[in-house]
Specification:
The complex is a heterodimer of chains A (202) and B (485). With 202 residues, chain A is an alpha/beta fold. Chain A has one domain (2-198): P-loop containing nucleotide triphosphate hydrolases (Rossmann fold). Chain A has helices at residues 11-20, 39-44, 63-73, 91-104, and strands spanning 2-5, 28-32, 52-55, 78-82, 107-112, 127-139, 142-155, 162-171, 182-185, 188-191, 196-198. In chain A, strands 1, 2, 3, 4, 5, 6, 7, 8, 9, 10 and 11 form an 11-stranded mixed beta sheet that branches. In chain A, α3 packs parallel to α4. Chain A is globular, with a radius of gyration of 17 Å. Chain B is of the alpha+beta class. Chain B folds into 3 domains: 57-220, DNA polymerase, domain 1 (Orthogonal Bundle); 230-324 and 336-387, Dna Ligase, domain 1, CATH 3.30.1490.100; 404-484, no CATH class. In chain B, 30% of the residues lie in helices and 30% in strands. Chain B is built from 13 helices and 20 strands. Chain B has helices spanning 28-31, 41-47, 58-73, 95-98, 101-115, 128-137, 151-155, 167-175, 181-185, 192-207, 237-258, 290-302, 340-358; strands spanning 2-5, 12-14, 23-26, 53-55, 79-80, 88-89, 118-124, 143-145, 224-234, 260-271, 276-287, 310-322, 363-368, 378-382, 404-416, 422-426, 429-444, 452-461, 466-472, 478-484. In chain B, α12 crosses α13. The chains are: A alpha/beta (202), B alpha+beta (485). Chains A and B meet through α1, α2, β3, α3 and β6 of A and α13, β13, β15 and β20 of B. β3 of chain A pairs antiparallel with β13 of chain B.
Chain lengths: 202, 485
């Protein structure tokens, strides 16, 4: 799976929510090339830090080596790769990765901030999303979430060329039961193709 | 065996932790002038100002006594030491190597004096009690041997104070006219426990040679290592790998022989300028199998940058566990998924492979802390992928957290436009602030040297980016701490 979005877009939040929603209790990995990943943000998205391993390769050149090792071992439920500006995966590498991921039943999501005209960074992806637009939400004078417009550019499930409007909202402890701070995908997804379904996590 | 400080050491040692700081040990010759254990420090300092006093420090004393124990280890494999300064050694069967018990005792005394800063009082007896009393009584000669079967006869003249009886018991015995060990041993067995308690009974049985207290030999940490000193300078990775295989095979045999497995392998390379490079290779699970150990070394060699020729290799098995395997599930998981235990093992194996190549710092897990500063709100720890059995504590935050953290924070400049809006200058680019919130004041650890006082702001720019910035109240400068993504 590939998700793109400009530098100003919000694919990382969505990617962490996706990682938290992986339906298993096995290990998760984040490959963080820039070294800026903030672990408490993963907790807010609902990820148990005991499941999460953060890998910071010494150089962008080692990205494929790392993701190949993690996928091939079959030990991870999901792998999230934060691609840098200059990192891309070749067709041969993508084929290898897809084969390993399928065999190990490991979900792989690569996110990047390349512009649409630069083309896909991860060929052979089953699903390709792009964050087309994003609006920050403010409540009581404080940043409280964001609204994302996500385009489904490619999907093997027949959902291609759809647009989804997603609201990601932070619920404070005390305002949403006794739970701690959590970021929720809190909207009924409205699609351009007249599909509507609820995607609220609780 | 009891130890006494040598001449260059202080005259007395006092205990800091106790109220009044009483003296613990005093040189025997000073007891004649009234300086005895139990006197309070202030009284001693007032009456004998020139006395050399030193505080008792358990860690230092324990470390110093370790050298004595090592010396004793060279005499016998069975050495017991439950308190610092006292040790028991099983001397049975050592006669053919060291001669009589008297000769052995003198050898031990000399060896301890050479190997440490202490002089030892050595007592020899048929039980731990007799040896202990003999060592206390050896203050003059340094060595005292109590022949087996002659305990009462030999120890009869000894005063009661040396037997380890309680002070109240000694007073009562004195009132009865009993002043030495012989008189105490002559008391009838039936009344001892009732009148003088368990300690009195122990002393009475010990004097009659009826006390059976087995020696509790101290355990030693198992250290398994092997090394290879090359006769030439080697820089070929294939040949180094071959040398490592030989070492790994030998180490694996050692592990199997002891019935244990290791979870980490420490490898140390010695270069031709005698410098060292050490690295710990973590394994997915405890193992003694040479092929798995060698595989990790091969991964390590793949990423090894050799600045100069290698003259030696040392391998040490670390994190030793009892041998045996991990029980895997026979049935596969949901939807033919590999079971979690096996999946975790595979994941650890892959992480170990990456760590062997690029170092432990490359692969990390995080855990939350209770600190309020964003950069200190989590800690990095080794990636162990523990089982998920306990619920983690809920975290509470004061701000909507940034998703990308800049540590250390990036210095930025914030200016005001004529219309009142702000602009952020970052990396030579201008970001006009469209919306902002704050300040939230963070005043952390105000009582410490590393106190911080910050005013936090959230900025949304016209370009659509959202930043978490703060203004330091110390130097009034602006910093970018994180970005929302």
């Amino acid at each position: 799976m590939e998700m793109g979005g400009a530098d100003t877009g919000g694919p990382l939040t969505l990617a962490l929510l996706w990682l938290a929603a992986v339906p298993a209790d096995g290990p998760l990995a984040v490959i963080d090339l820039d070294g800026c990943m903030y672990p408490p943000a993963a907790v807010v998205c609902g990820i148990d830090l005991r499941r999460l391993v953060i890998i910071r390769p010494p150089s962008p050149r080692n990205f494929f080596h790392v993701i190949r090792e993690l996928t091939r071992c079959g030990g991870f439920d999901a792998i999230l790769g934060l691609l840098g500006k200059a990192t891309c995966v070749s067709l041969a590498e993508a084929g290898q990765l897809r084969s390993f991921a399928h065999e190990a039943r490991t979900a792989v999501l690569l996110i990047h901030d390349a512009k649409p005209e630069q083309g896909p960074r991860f060929p052979l992806a089953d699903t390709r999303l792009r964050v087309a637009d994003r609006t920050w939400l403010w409540d009581d004078g404080e940043l409280s979430g964001q609204c994302l417009c996500v385009d489904m550019e490619r999907s093997r499930l027949g959902l291609a060329d759809s647009r989804y409007e997603l609201t990601l909202r932070l619920y404070r402890q005390g305002t949403h039961g006794t739970q701690s701070d959590h970021l929720y995908l809190d909207s009924t997804l409205r699609t351009r193709g007249q599909r509507a379904f609820t995607a609220t996590r609780g | 065996m009891r130890l006494q400080p040598l001449e260059a050491e202080p005259d007395a040692i006092y205990k800091i932790e106790s109220m009044g700081q009483p003296l613990l040990e005093v040189r025997p010759q000073l007891e004649a002038v009234g300086i005895r254990p139990g006197l309070l420090l202030r009284e001693v300092q007032a009456r004998w100002p020139k006395l050399r006093l030193r505080a008792y420090q358990y860690e230092q004393a324990s470390a110093a006594f370790e050298s004595v124990l090592r010396t004793l280890d060279s005499f016998s494999p069975f050495v017991e030491s439950l308190t610092v300064g006292h040790a028991y050694l099983d001397a049975s069967g050592l006669e053919r190597q060291y001669g009589s018990h008297d000769q052995l005792a003198w050898r031990i005394r000399k060896a301890v004096q050479i190997g440490s800063t202490y002089s030892a009082q050595v007592g020899v007896g048929s039980s731990k009690f007799v040896a202990d009393v003999a060592a206390r009584a050896a203050a003059v000669n340094g060595v005292w041997v109590v022949p087996p079967g002659q305990e009462i006869k030999t120890m009869a003249p000894l005063p009661l104070e040396i037997l380890g009886l309680e002070p109240d018991t000694i007073k009562r015995l004195h009132a009865l006219g009993i002043r030495n060990a012989g008189a105490f041993a002559a008391l009838p067995d039936s009344s001892i426990l009732h009148r003088f308690g368990a300690i009195g009974l122990r002393v009475h049985c010990g004097l009659h040679g009826r006390l059976e207290e087995p020696l509790q030999a101290r355990s030693y940490p198992l250290v398994l290592h092997d090394q290879l000193d090359l006769e030439w300078v080697e820089d070929n990775l294939d040949r180094l790998q071959f040398a490592c295989k030989m070492l790994v095979d030998r180490l694996s045999m050692q592990l199997v022989r002891h019935g244990v497995a290791c979870r980490a392998l420490e490898i140390c390379w010695r270069f031709e300028d005698q410098s060292h490079y050490e690295r710990t290779l973590r394994l997915a699970e405890p193992t003694a199998r040479s092929e798995i150990l060698l595989r990790h070394i091969r991964w390590h060699l793949d990423g090894l940058q050799i600045p100069q020729g290698i003259t030696g290799i040392r391998l040490r098995a670390d994190e030793i566990y009892p041998g045996g395997g991990q029980q895997l599930k026979l049935l596969s998981g949901i939807e033919a998924r590999i079971p979690d235990v096996e999946r975790r093992r595979c994941a650890r194996d892959a992480l170990g492979r990456l760590q062997a190549r690029w170092g432990d710092e490359m692969v990390r897990q995080a855990e939350l802390t209770s600190e309020r500063r964003p950069e200190q709100s989590f800690l990095w720890r080794d990636a162990t992928l523990p089982e998920l059995e306990l619920d983690s504590a809920d975290a509470v935050y004061h701000l909507h957290l940034p998703f990308l953290l800049h540590h250390p924070p990036w210095p930025i400049r914030v200016r005001h436009l004529r219309d009142g809006r702000k602009i952020v200058l970052l990396d030579g680019r201008r970001y006009v602030v469209d919306r902002q919130s704050g300040p939230w004041r963070l005043h952390d650890r105000a009582w410490t040297v590393d106190a911080v006082a910050r005013d936090y702001y959230q900025f949304e720019t016209e370009e659509g980016q959202a930043f978490l910035c703060f203004r330091s109240r110390g130097n009034t400068r602006w910093y970018l701490q994180g970005r929302y993504a």
